[in-house]
Design goal:
The chain has 301 residues and is mainly α. It is 74% helix and 0% strand. Helix 2 packs across helix 9 and helix 8 packs antiparallel against helix 9.
Length: 301
């Protein structure tokens, strides 16, 4: 049943993208990232403190262990990888339609799949390969539709930004597999301390790159969706890390299913943001749903 929490993670990841797009409209990037990271920290820090003083039992799903300095360094490296991905992704989301950003981000499993096979020796059945190939083809076709919206991929720097974010996201997914499955680090230790280091990193970046020029170029306006970015990501990561911590989980399947969050983004693009080419995108998304259904069948769900 490890695939079910991945589906839940994909749903919250889609909502996360919607709140991110709404928050970044006519707004500065770094303060949005800072507030969303601070919100996540406000949730995770009490869990860390309560776990360390014994108020949360070790058998609880929310217990956060502390395994020493070596593990903390490894988690800090993860935070650096994710922070790099987020910076590229947030800037791209600000300047591109969500129906362009989400499909390109969804191609991360292509790189993750190659890494999973080469680094972890994962093997898929024929039907699982068919499902993965179907999802990848649909996501590629979905991104191609974006060219009808007069965005020149070869010349647009924000398209480069989202591709860079996608590659770093794939690296992060492989690193998660290494931390949780290979090294056996507790999932809550990774998620909770990641939130701490993520906040520290974005605090430093905001002070260096945003505060000195905030009054001249990049004004900030409060929106209620900004803290919800961090909350939705907490839920998405909680389900994701729970699934990834299970020994039978395959990162080569987890990653593409998680990226099916593009379906939620599609609905937002159609209903909330009134974006173009909805009919063509709907046909392609039907193929994605078929691929996910095939993954269900091949995993006995």
């Amino acid at each position: 049943m490890w695939l079910l929490p991945v589906i839940c993670s994909a749903f919250f990841l889609g909502i996360y993208d919607i709140f991110k797009k709404q928050s970044l409209s006519h707004n500065a990037v770094f303060p949005v990232m800072f507030i969303s990271s601070a919100t996540a920290l406000c949730v995770m820090l009490p869990l860390i403190l309560l776990s360390q003083n014994g108020a949360i039992a070790k058998t609880s799903l929310f217990f956060v262990p502390f395994s020493g300095g070596r593990v903390q360094i490894l988690i800090f490296i993860k935070s650096c990888i994710v922070q790099t991905s987020w910076i590229f992704a947030f800037f791209a989301m600000k300047h591109l339609p969500i129906s362009i950003v989400s499909p390109i981000r969804a191609t991360a499993p292509v790189w993750t799949l190659l890494g999973a096979i080469l680094l972890f020796g994962e093997r898929l059945s024929l039907l699982q390969w068919a499902a993965i190939v179907l999802i990848f083809c649909c996501l590629f076709a979905y991104s191609r539709v974006g060219k009808r919206e007069e965005i020149r991929f070869a010349r647009n720097k924000w398209v480069f930004f989202i591709f860079a974010a996608t590659i770093f996201a794939a690296i992060s997914a492989l690193y998660d597999k290494y931390l949780l499955n290979t090294l056996g680090i507790h999932r809550m230790e990774v998620q909770a301390w990641f939130s701490v280091y993520q906040f520290i990193l974005i605090l430093m970046l905001t002070c260096v790159f945003y505060l000195p020029i905030r009054k001249h170029k990049y004004p900030f306006q409060w929106q209620w969706t900004i803290p919800l970015i961090g909350i939705c990501l907490l839920f998405a990561d909680f389900f994701y890390f729970y699934a990834l911590s299970l020994p039978q989980a395959l990162i080569a399947i987890i990653s593409p299913v998680r990226r099916s969050a593009v379906i939620v983004s599609f609905v937002a693009g159609a209903v909330i943001f009134k974006e173009k080419n909805i009919a063509r995108k709907a046909v392609i998304l039907l193929g994605i749903l078929c691929g996910i259904a095939l993954l269900y069948v091949t995993n006995g769900l």
